[in-house]
Amino acid sequence: MIKAYGLYPVYLFFTLFFFSPYKHHEPKSLVKESPDNEVIYHLFQRSFFDSNGDRIGDLKGIEQKLDYLQGLGINSILLLPLYESIYYHNYYSGDFKKIDPSFGSLKDYISLVKAIHKRGMKVYMDMETQYVTEDHLWYKSAVGNPKSPYSDYILFEDKAHAKPATFVLGLRGWTSYDGTYKKIATVNLKNKNVLAYNIKLYKYWLDPNGDGKFDDGVDGYRFDHMMDDLDNKPQLKGLFKCFWLPLVTELKKVNPKIKNVAEQANWASWGDEYIRDGVADRIFSFKIMGAIRSFNKAKLTSITDSAFTIFPHNNQNVLFVENHDVPRFASSVNRSIPKLKIGASLNLLLGGTASIYYGQELGMYGTGAWGKWGMNDGNEIPMREAFEWYASDTGRGMALWYKNTGVWWDSTNLKPHDGISLEEQINDPNSLFNFYKKIISIRKSNPVIADGKFQSLENGNPHVYSFRRYDGSTSLLVVINLSDANQKAQLKDALLDEKKYKVKQLNGEATVNLTDNNTVFELKPYAIEIYSLKRK
Q1: Ordered domains of the chain (ranges, CATH)
Q2: What is the residue-wise DSSP string for 64-108?
Q3: Which residues on adjacent β-strands are paired with residue 535?
Q4: Sheet harboring 474-481: ordered strands across?
Q5: DSSP assignments along 178-189, one per residue
Q6: pLDDT at 121 over 60
Q7: In sequence order, what are the residues at sequence separation of 6 or more whose Cβ sits closer than 8 angstroms to the Cβ of residue 88?
């Protein structure tokens, strides 16, 4: 969700295939993936690929780029809201039932979903129905009219219903990057008719044609800004029990296989109550994101040990290093390729359900300038720019919807021939893009990452982080030098002893010395050592 002013609590913690000049041929694998071994591609679809030349990323554009996504190793796609909204991110809707026409039609949507499913992939939809704009029927009918059939569908601060309750951060409206201002109100989620409306709405996207086959329906939802007491409003306490659980229960009656992930409003929390109370199957691990970004071994060890203990099943954690609401990871590490590769390794190999944000695999960068250009959602455009398909940052499909919009375009991070494009990286074996392909392939070839147990491995060096994923006789060992200096680390087990294990080195070039009781690694700066072990 767009965070008003950009001042959302977390920021305190972290102050081509189609019509392309090059060819990218990838096999269209129809092999079904393990249900627990998902690599989700988090799309900001407006900025991904434009199919019709209007500079707006759209549904047909995504379908045309499924070869690219599957070739990268992606097996699930998360779409941001599709419903009609005057805001470019499509949160805060005027009509939840309508697809934003700039993305395409319902026919385009169904075509995309079916194409995704034919490839053995999954698709998830981001939803936030907790707020409506002044364009919504409920708002137009109820404001100033206590006798409206929708009078109790939104919250009011007065009996005359002249003053709708505020939404996030006590605001009553929000300005889009183009200067459009809309009033926004909070929905009364305790109204039984609102619950019934949401059940019907969410059920529709699970099976649009109602035939029970689900080839045209989503595989689950991302619940944005999910709270038990929405925005700490006293009228909206206990929502897990009276709104979210009944909604999820009804959805799973339609398709028991769906998986829903919650974005907890308090990013500093573990969010285990969402799992415990049954309102979500997965939770975004903001704590692990912060630990990865810190490059601090002690923090990484503490956070990961806790995360994989708190949640009984690995895939309940959704691991990521960036999304549409936080500064790009490349910006946080000053575009350091070695650090970006470490981030990729931890993002994809620690376990859980992995999620990567579009352009992350290229090292796209951008930091929101919250408040710099006034109180509007344009301040976060730098984190949501057009996917860089071409070295020149021009060409068919570039989703430059914000071009020539003033300060946001004048301050664009897109620079021609800076190495941050698919065209520049696809044929470079040492590129970040090809490293992502390699690490995703390692993940998919080693089921213990998604299905096995997690164990931190102490090595006696405060700059070297080591862990393993294991299950029975099989292990994946990862040893990472988090520093820019040579380091030595000692594991208290001769894990790479080929007399005991069938050892396969998947990445790295460290010098390794074995004794009867330990394995000693001599690591170069930012070294990433990955080994597959199977006990003989």
Answers
A1: 4-128+191-445 (3.20.20.80), 452-535 (2.60.40.1180)
A2: HTHHHHHHHT--EEEEPP-EE-SSTT--SBSEEEEE-TTT--HHH
A3: 501
A4: 453-456, 464-471, 474-481, 528-535, 501-507
A5: TS-EEEEEEB-T
A6: yes
A7: 46, 176, 177, 377, 381, 401, 402
Do the Cβ atoms of 490 and 518 come closer than 8 Å? Answer: yes
- Report DSSP state, residue 514: E
**Alpha carbon distance 456, 470 (integer Å):** 11
CA angle 277, 278, 281 (to 5 degrees): 125
Q: How many H-runs (helices) and E-runs (strands) does the chain carry?
A: 16, 21
Q: What's the pLDDT band for 34 if we cut at 50, 70, 90?
A: low
Decide if pLDDT at 27 tops 90. Answer: no
E strands in 100-220: 122-127, 131-133, 173-175, 181-186
E strand or H helix at 262 = strand 261-264
Residue 198 in tokens: 């949401």
- C-beta of residue 4 within 8 angstroms of C-beta of residue 171: yes
Compute the distance between CA of residue 464 and CA of residue 455 in angstroms, rounded to an integer.
Answer: 15
Which helix (H) or strand (E) segment holds residue 319: the answer is strand 317-319
- Output DSSP code: residue 525: T
Q: For 410, which DSSP code?
A: H
- Out of 27-36, 113-122, 453-462, least confident range: 27-36
Nearest-angstrom CA–CA distance, 360 and 170: 33
- What average pLDDT does this structure show over 192-196? 98
pLDDT in tens, 473-517: 999 999 999 999 999 999 999 999 998 999 999 999 999 999 888
Q: Residue 304's pLDDT is what? A: 96
Give the amino acid at 505.
Q
Cα–Cα distances in Å, from 533 out to 314, 469, 500? Answer: 20, 10, 10
Burial class, 192, CB count within 10 angstroms (exposed 0-12 / middle 13-18 / buried 19+): exposed
Tokens encoding 196 = 């019934």
> How far from 204 is each of 110, 188, 199, CA to CA, in Å?
12, 21, 9
* CA atoms of 208 and 106, how far apart (whole Å): 10
CA angle 520, 455, 439 (to 5 degrees): 80
Per-residue tokens: 84: 């009609």
Under 8 Å between Cβ of 365 and 351: no
**pLDDT tens digits for range 143-169:** 999 999 999 999 999 999 999 999 988
Average pLDDT over residues 338-367: 97
Asked whether the predicted pLDDT for residue 19 surpasses 80, the reply is: no
Query: pLDDT tens-digit profile of 382-433?
Result: 999 999 999 999 999 999 999 988 788 888 999 999 999 999 999 999 999 9
Question: How many angstroms separate the CA atoms of 213 and 284, rounded?
Answer: 29
